């Protein structure tokens, strides 16, 4: 379609505008009607609109349908994070979040594999075929979620649905083979009245939570800005520098594979230090990796080549660790009644990062005729994130308390 730089960036950014709208819709929907419904609608929408993307005839039609893909994707994210937190024992949350995040890596690897099958050099891709086969995982996910996903017992109890909460707990008990565990509990008096959307929003922006909310939102913004911005920029970086013996598609596949150790490194690190400490370390290491990438790309010889590759792999690894830590902490930072809304606010901020990342890259590229300034801006943003995170108390154990899955106590 002979798109200019702004249009190329906009086709990518419009997806994140849709995700932003989906995230903000998921908060009230997930806290008002439950966690399962947004997840099912998300799977269904991704499959439907991904297939429709293949019928786009121009910039406007492609932008419209890709925004709907993004909306469907964003609708399920906050509810998924909240549900994962609410059905997981405290000691397993980081590991289960890592497994969920690893599926992002699997999706990235799946996409890179499809690209490799179509055109390893990424010069003449059949994007219509890619859109259609890209819908397959969401179809599988919808079927599995419809038949096997239980509603959150914490949500049911918080809204006064005691019998439904007991049934959900019984289902979880049976599937885990915990036949000798009792599901009975005493409902707290506060967990009886469903609250309005306004109450949910007021809770996360209350005096006691507002700095935490904004700091976590900025952390998620930077995380997504680096992830999606680098994902957008890396093909150009490795095409121009040509410091590896692999094709750009293979480099992307290698990057996707090295994210896996990062995802599972986060729960290992969390066994020894707090989640906030993990985020502080990763903010520092991400800044150094971004600088290493720029320095390595501007020199000749094996040392600069290794520095470039170390920076690339460092970015991919630290991003995956931070994803696990940030979203686990975001899900525990807010009370159950407003948890999906709080996570939605954090993920919506992340979507802003995803939206502006390609546009910032193209703008800096046009101004400086180079991709390096984009990565330097990202390095500075991570240093600011470190400063904001340092004074916060985000982990439940820092207050000497265990976060319960249901706001009640066993009889």
From TrEMBL:
Residue spans crossing the bilayer: 6-25, 37-59, 65-84, 96-115, 127-149, 208-234, 246-266, 278-298, 310-330, 373-392
Membrane topology of this protein: Multi-pass membrane protein
Molecular function in Gene Ontology: transmembrane transporter activity
Cellular location(s): Membrane
UniProt keyword terms in alphabetical order: Membrane, Transmembrane, Transmembrane helix, Transport
Keyword Transmembrane: yes
Main location: membrane
Ranges for domain Major facilitator superfamily (MFS) profile: 1-397
One GO location term (cellular component): membrane
Source organism superkingdom: Eukaryota
Pfam families with a match to the protein in the record: Sugar_tr
Keyword Disulfide bond: no
PANTHER family the record matches: MAJOR FACILITATOR-TYPE TRANSPORTER HXNZ-RELATED, SYNAPTIC VESICLE GLYCOPROTEIN 2
The name this protein goes by in its record: SVOP protein
Species in which this protein is naturally found: Symbiodinium necroappetens
Lineage of origin: Eukaryota, Sar, Alveolata, Dinophyceae, Suessiales
Gene this chain is encoded by: SVOP
